Write the C-alpha coordinates for this entry.
Amino acid sequence: MDRRTVVIGSINYDIIIKQDRLPKIGETISANSVSMSGGGKGANQAVQCAKLGLDTHMIGKVGNDHFGDELLNGLEKYHVHTNFIKKADTNSGLGFVNSFPDGRLLSTIEKGANYKLQIKDIQDAVSIIKEASIVVIQLEIPIKVAEYAIQLGKKHGCYIILNAAPSVPISADVLKLVDCFVVNEAEASYYAGTEIETAEQALAASDLLQNMVAHLVCITLGEKGSVLFDGKEKQYFPAEKVDVIETTGAGDSYIGGIAYSVLNNFLINEMGKFASKVSSKTVTNIGAHEAMPSLEEVIM
Ligand SMILES: Nc1ncnc2c1ncn2[C@@H]1O[C@H](COP(=O)(O)OP(=O)(O)O)[C@@H](O)[C@H]1O
Ligand SMILES: [Mg+2]
Protein backbone atom coordinates (compact mmCIF):
# COMPACT_ATOMS: atom_id res chain seq x y z
CA MET A 1 0.00 0.00 0.00
CA ASP A 2 1.27 3.45 -0.91
CA ARG A 3 0.70 5.47 2.24
CA ARG A 4 1.79 8.88 1.00
CA THR A 5 -0.58 11.61 2.14
CA VAL A 6 -0.30 15.32 1.44
CA VAL A 7 -2.08 17.72 3.78
CA ILE A 8 -2.57 21.27 2.51
CA GLY A 9 -3.73 23.86 5.01
CA SER A 10 -3.38 25.84 8.17
CA ILE A 11 -0.71 25.74 10.86
CA ASN A 12 -1.49 27.64 14.08
CA TYR A 13 -0.01 28.11 17.50
CA ASP A 14 -2.86 27.43 19.97
CA ILE A 15 -3.18 28.95 23.42
CA ILE A 16 -5.81 26.98 25.37
CA ILE A 17 -7.26 28.64 28.46
CA LYS A 18 -9.19 26.36 30.83
CA GLN A 19 -11.77 28.36 32.74
CA ASP A 20 -15.13 27.87 34.47
CA ARG A 21 -16.85 30.62 32.50
CA LEU A 22 -16.20 33.71 30.37
CA PRO A 23 -15.68 37.03 32.16
CA LYS A 24 -18.39 39.66 31.82
CA ILE A 25 -17.53 42.95 30.04
CA GLY A 26 -15.26 44.94 32.39
CA GLU A 27 -14.58 41.91 34.61
CA THR A 28 -11.25 40.10 35.01
CA ILE A 29 -11.23 36.47 36.11
CA SER A 30 -8.46 33.93 36.64
CA ALA A 31 -8.03 30.94 34.37
CA ASN A 32 -7.75 27.49 35.95
CA SER A 33 -4.79 26.68 33.71
CA VAL A 34 -3.28 27.51 30.35
CA SER A 35 -1.55 25.26 27.86
CA MET A 36 0.11 25.86 24.51
CA SER A 37 0.05 23.48 21.62
CA GLY A 38 0.60 23.22 17.91
CA GLY A 39 -2.74 23.54 16.13
CA GLY A 40 -4.58 24.67 13.02
CA LYS A 41 -6.76 22.22 11.15
CA GLY A 42 -4.10 21.38 8.56
CA ALA A 43 -1.31 20.70 11.04
CA ASN A 44 -3.68 18.74 13.31
CA GLN A 45 -4.80 16.51 10.46
CA ALA A 46 -1.21 16.00 9.33
CA VAL A 47 -0.12 14.97 12.82
CA GLN A 48 -3.01 12.51 13.16
CA CYS A 49 -2.19 10.98 9.76
CA ALA A 50 1.49 10.65 10.72
CA LYS A 51 0.63 9.16 14.14
CA LEU A 52 -1.42 6.52 12.32
CA GLY A 53 1.70 5.61 10.34
CA LEU A 54 0.95 7.40 7.05
CA ASP A 55 3.87 8.99 5.17
CA THR A 56 2.62 12.55 5.64
CA HIS A 57 3.82 15.71 3.89
CA MET A 58 2.43 19.13 4.65
CA ILE A 59 2.09 22.16 2.38
CA GLY A 60 1.46 25.47 4.16
CA LYS A 61 2.95 28.64 5.60
CA VAL A 62 4.15 29.72 9.02
CA GLY A 63 5.27 33.18 10.10
CA ASN A 64 8.77 34.62 10.49
CA ASP A 65 8.31 34.81 14.29
CA HIS A 66 9.51 32.36 16.96
CA PHE A 67 6.17 30.53 16.77
CA GLY A 68 7.02 29.60 13.18
CA ASP A 69 10.15 27.68 14.19
CA GLU A 70 8.34 26.04 17.07
CA LEU A 71 5.53 24.94 14.81
CA LEU A 72 7.95 23.39 12.30
CA ASN A 73 9.83 21.58 15.09
CA GLY A 74 6.54 20.36 16.53
CA LEU A 75 5.45 18.87 13.19
CA GLU A 76 8.83 17.20 12.66
CA LYS A 77 8.65 15.70 16.14
CA TYR A 78 5.57 13.81 14.95
CA HIS A 79 7.29 12.80 11.67
CA VAL A 80 5.35 15.16 9.42
CA HIS A 81 7.60 16.17 6.49
CA THR A 82 7.91 19.96 6.39
CA ASN A 83 10.01 20.54 3.22
CA PHE A 84 7.06 22.28 1.51
CA ILE A 85 6.14 24.57 4.41
CA LYS A 86 7.38 28.07 3.65
CA LYS A 87 7.85 31.10 5.87
CA ALA A 88 5.80 34.23 5.16
CA ASP A 89 6.84 37.76 6.02
CA THR A 90 4.21 38.09 8.76
CA ASN A 91 3.19 36.47 12.04
CA SER A 92 2.24 32.80 12.38
CA GLY A 93 -1.43 31.88 12.60
CA LEU A 94 -2.65 31.91 16.21
CA GLY A 95 -5.57 30.16 17.89
CA PHE A 96 -7.07 31.32 21.20
CA VAL A 97 -9.23 28.60 22.74
CA ASN A 98 -11.48 28.97 25.80
CA SER A 99 -12.16 25.52 27.23
CA PHE A 100 -14.98 24.97 29.76
CA PRO A 101 -15.40 22.13 32.29
CA ASP A 102 -18.12 20.37 30.25
CA GLY A 103 -15.70 20.04 27.29
CA ARG A 104 -17.23 22.82 25.22
CA LEU A 105 -14.90 25.26 23.44
CA LEU A 106 -14.84 28.78 22.03
CA SER A 107 -12.13 29.56 19.47
CA THR A 108 -10.78 32.76 17.93
CA ILE A 109 -8.22 32.61 15.15
CA GLU A 110 -5.69 35.12 13.84
CA LYS A 111 -5.11 33.96 10.27
CA GLY A 112 -1.53 35.24 9.96
CA ALA A 113 0.75 33.36 7.54
CA ASN A 114 -1.94 30.83 6.55
CA TYR A 115 -3.62 33.42 4.34
CA LYS A 116 -0.33 34.22 2.58
CA LEU A 117 -0.42 30.77 0.97
CA GLN A 118 -0.58 31.23 -2.81
CA ILE A 119 -1.32 29.11 -5.86
CA LYS A 120 2.40 29.29 -6.67
CA ASP A 121 3.22 27.55 -3.36
CA ILE A 122 0.99 24.63 -4.41
CA GLN A 123 2.61 24.56 -7.87
CA ASP A 124 6.05 24.52 -6.23
CA ALA A 125 5.03 21.37 -4.37
CA VAL A 126 3.66 19.49 -7.40
CA SER A 127 6.42 16.86 -7.17
CA ILE A 128 5.04 15.61 -3.85
CA ILE A 129 1.41 15.82 -4.99
CA LYS A 130 2.29 13.66 -8.02
CA GLU A 131 3.57 10.95 -5.68
CA ALA A 132 0.65 11.09 -3.24
CA SER A 133 -2.34 8.75 -2.93
CA ILE A 134 -4.42 11.15 -0.87
CA VAL A 135 -4.63 14.93 -0.63
CA VAL A 136 -6.35 16.36 2.47
CA ILE A 137 -7.48 20.02 2.36
CA GLN A 138 -9.37 22.36 4.71
CA LEU A 139 -10.50 25.96 4.21
CA GLU A 140 -8.34 27.94 6.66
CA ILE A 141 -6.35 29.13 3.61
CA PRO A 142 -7.49 31.39 0.73
CA ILE A 143 -10.39 29.63 -1.04
CA LYS A 144 -8.85 30.12 -4.50
CA VAL A 145 -5.74 28.26 -3.32
CA ALA A 146 -7.83 25.44 -1.85
CA GLU A 147 -9.84 25.13 -5.09
CA TYR A 148 -6.64 25.05 -7.13
CA ALA A 149 -5.16 22.38 -4.84
CA ILE A 150 -8.25 20.18 -5.26
CA GLN A 151 -8.00 20.47 -9.06
CA LEU A 152 -4.25 19.78 -9.09
CA GLY A 153 -4.58 16.79 -6.76
CA LYS A 154 -7.36 15.35 -8.90
CA LYS A 155 -5.33 15.89 -12.09
CA HIS A 156 -2.60 13.74 -10.57
CA GLY A 157 -4.98 10.94 -9.62
CA CYS A 158 -5.12 11.60 -5.86
CA TYR A 159 -8.11 10.77 -3.67
CA ILE A 160 -9.31 14.18 -2.39
CA ILE A 161 -10.55 14.62 1.17
CA LEU A 162 -12.03 18.08 1.74
CA ASN A 163 -12.79 19.21 5.27
CA ALA A 164 -14.97 22.20 4.33
CA ALA A 165 -14.15 24.09 7.52
CA PRO A 166 -14.67 26.92 8.14
CA SER A 167 -17.70 27.02 5.82
CA VAL A 168 -17.20 29.47 2.96
CA PRO A 169 -18.67 29.58 -0.56
CA ILE A 170 -16.86 27.14 -2.87
CA SER A 171 -17.17 26.46 -6.60
CA ALA A 172 -19.81 23.78 -7.32
CA ASP A 173 -17.62 22.41 -10.14
CA VAL A 174 -14.66 22.00 -7.79
CA LEU A 175 -16.86 20.34 -5.14
CA LYS A 176 -17.80 17.72 -7.73
CA LEU A 177 -14.11 16.65 -7.78
CA VAL A 178 -14.07 15.95 -4.04
CA ASP A 179 -14.02 12.21 -3.19
CA CYS A 180 -14.70 12.62 0.51
CA PHE A 181 -16.41 15.69 1.99
CA VAL A 182 -16.16 16.00 5.79
CA VAL A 183 -18.13 18.61 7.76
CA ASN A 184 -19.31 19.05 11.34
CA GLU A 185 -22.92 19.94 12.16
CA ALA A 186 -22.40 23.71 11.77
CA GLU A 187 -20.64 23.39 8.41
CA ALA A 188 -23.16 20.79 7.22
CA SER A 189 -26.00 23.20 8.06
CA TYR A 190 -24.31 25.91 6.00
CA TYR A 191 -23.74 23.78 2.90
CA ALA A 192 -27.12 21.99 3.08
CA GLY A 193 -28.98 25.24 3.82
CA THR A 194 -30.94 23.56 6.60
CA GLU A 195 -30.35 23.17 10.32
CA ILE A 196 -28.50 19.99 11.25
CA GLU A 197 -28.07 19.19 14.93
CA THR A 198 -29.33 15.66 15.40
CA ALA A 199 -28.38 12.33 13.84
CA GLU A 200 -31.84 12.19 12.20
CA GLN A 201 -31.29 15.59 10.58
CA ALA A 202 -27.80 14.57 9.43
CA LEU A 203 -29.10 11.31 7.94
CA ALA A 204 -31.78 13.25 6.07
CA ALA A 205 -29.44 16.02 4.81
CA SER A 206 -26.68 13.64 3.74
CA ASP A 207 -28.48 12.97 0.41
CA LEU A 208 -28.31 16.61 -0.58
CA LEU A 209 -24.63 16.94 0.42
CA GLN A 210 -23.64 13.68 -1.25
CA ASN A 211 -25.16 14.97 -4.49
CA MET A 212 -22.74 17.91 -4.44
CA VAL A 213 -19.58 15.75 -4.34
CA ALA A 214 -18.01 12.80 -6.17
CA HIS A 215 -18.37 10.04 -3.62
CA LEU A 216 -18.51 10.09 0.17
CA VAL A 217 -19.99 12.49 2.73
CA CYS A 218 -19.12 12.43 6.46
CA ILE A 219 -21.12 14.60 8.86
CA THR A 220 -19.68 14.70 12.38
CA LEU A 221 -21.90 15.66 15.31
CA GLY A 222 -19.50 15.93 18.26
CA GLU A 223 -20.61 13.73 21.14
CA LYS A 224 -23.66 12.71 19.08
CA GLY A 225 -21.44 10.76 16.65
CA SER A 226 -21.28 10.86 12.86
CA VAL A 227 -23.04 9.89 9.64
CA LEU A 228 -21.41 8.47 6.49
CA PHE A 229 -23.11 8.22 3.08
CA ASP A 230 -21.53 7.24 -0.25
CA GLY A 231 -24.66 7.38 -2.42
CA LYS A 232 -25.47 3.73 -1.71
CA GLU A 233 -24.77 2.94 1.91
CA LYS A 234 -25.79 5.26 4.72
CA GLN A 235 -24.79 4.63 8.30
CA TYR A 236 -24.89 6.34 11.69
CA PHE A 237 -21.98 5.85 14.12
CA PRO A 238 -22.51 6.79 17.77
CA ALA A 239 -19.56 8.48 19.48
CA GLU A 240 -17.58 6.22 21.80
CA LYS A 241 -18.33 6.66 25.48
CA VAL A 242 -15.21 8.18 27.04
CA ASP A 243 -14.26 10.54 29.87
CA VAL A 244 -13.98 13.85 28.04
CA ILE A 245 -11.18 16.19 29.05
CA GLU A 246 -11.00 18.64 26.15
CA THR A 247 -12.30 18.34 22.59
CA THR A 248 -9.81 20.44 20.54
CA GLY A 249 -8.92 18.60 17.36
CA ALA A 250 -11.69 15.97 17.55
CA GLY A 251 -12.78 16.61 13.98
CA ASP A 252 -9.18 16.74 12.73
CA SER A 253 -8.43 13.45 14.42
CA TYR A 254 -11.56 11.94 12.82
CA ILE A 255 -10.23 13.04 9.40
CA GLY A 256 -6.90 11.32 10.08
CA GLY A 257 -8.94 8.20 10.76
CA ILE A 258 -10.79 8.63 7.47
CA ALA A 259 -7.52 9.04 5.54
CA TYR A 260 -6.14 5.85 7.11
CA SER A 261 -9.39 4.05 6.26
CA VAL A 262 -9.29 5.15 2.61
CA LEU A 263 -5.69 3.95 2.23
CA ASN A 264 -6.66 0.61 3.75
CA ASN A 265 -9.75 0.24 1.53
CA PHE A 266 -12.07 0.03 4.54
CA LEU A 267 -15.80 -0.33 3.88
CA ILE A 268 -18.14 2.39 5.22
CA ASN A 269 -18.86 0.35 8.33
CA GLU A 270 -15.18 -0.10 9.26
CA MET A 271 -14.36 3.48 8.29
CA GLY A 272 -16.94 5.08 10.60
CA LYS A 273 -15.99 2.84 13.50
CA PHE A 274 -12.27 3.44 13.05
CA ALA A 275 -12.56 7.26 12.72
CA SER A 276 -14.89 7.41 15.75
CA LYS A 277 -12.42 5.42 17.80
CA VAL A 278 -9.44 7.56 16.75
CA SER A 279 -11.25 10.84 17.57
CA SER A 280 -12.65 9.54 20.87
CA LYS A 281 -9.07 9.05 22.10
CA THR A 282 -8.23 12.67 21.23
CA VAL A 283 -10.97 14.10 23.49
CA THR A 284 -9.61 12.23 26.53
CA ASN A 285 -6.55 14.50 26.72
CA ILE A 286 -5.73 18.20 26.52
CA GLY A 287 -4.39 19.80 23.34
CA ALA A 288 -4.55 18.54 19.79
CA HIS A 289 -1.25 17.00 18.67
CA GLU A 290 -0.32 15.55 22.05
CA ALA A 291 -3.76 14.07 22.59
CA MET A 292 -4.01 12.32 19.22
CA PRO A 293 -3.52 8.55 19.39
CA SER A 294 -0.95 6.40 17.61
CA LEU A 295 -2.13 3.40 15.58
CA GLU A 296 -1.15 1.10 18.46
CA GLU A 297 -3.31 3.10 20.87
CA VAL A 298 -6.29 2.84 18.53
CA ILE A 299 -6.12 -0.88 17.81
CA MET A 300 -5.18 -2.16 21.27
N1 LIG B 1 -17.39 14.17 23.64
C1 LIG B 1 -17.03 13.23 22.75
N2 LIG B 1 -16.97 11.92 23.10
C2 LIG B 1 -16.61 10.96 22.22
N3 LIG B 1 -16.30 11.23 20.93
C3 LIG B 1 -16.34 12.50 20.52
C4 LIG B 1 -16.69 13.58 21.40
N4 LIG B 1 -16.62 14.74 20.70
C5 LIG B 1 -16.26 14.39 19.45
N5 LIG B 1 -16.10 13.06 19.33
C6 LIG B 1 -15.77 12.30 18.10
O1 LIG B 1 -15.09 13.15 17.22
C7 LIG B 1 -15.85 13.30 16.00
C8 LIG B 1 -15.63 14.69 15.47
O2 LIG B 1 -16.04 15.64 16.43
P1 LIG B 1 -16.79 17.00 16.03
O3 LIG B 1 -16.96 17.82 17.26
O4 LIG B 1 -18.04 16.66 15.28
O5 LIG B 1 -15.74 17.67 15.03
P2 LIG B 1 -15.23 19.20 15.00
O6 LIG B 1 -14.07 19.21 15.92
O7 LIG B 1 -14.87 19.40 13.57
O8 LIG B 1 -16.39 20.06 15.45
C9 LIG B 1 -17.28 12.95 16.38
O9 LIG B 1 -18.01 12.48 15.25
C10 LIG B 1 -17.06 11.86 17.41
O10 LIG B 1 -16.88 10.60 16.79
MG1 LIG C 1 -17.63 19.96 17.16
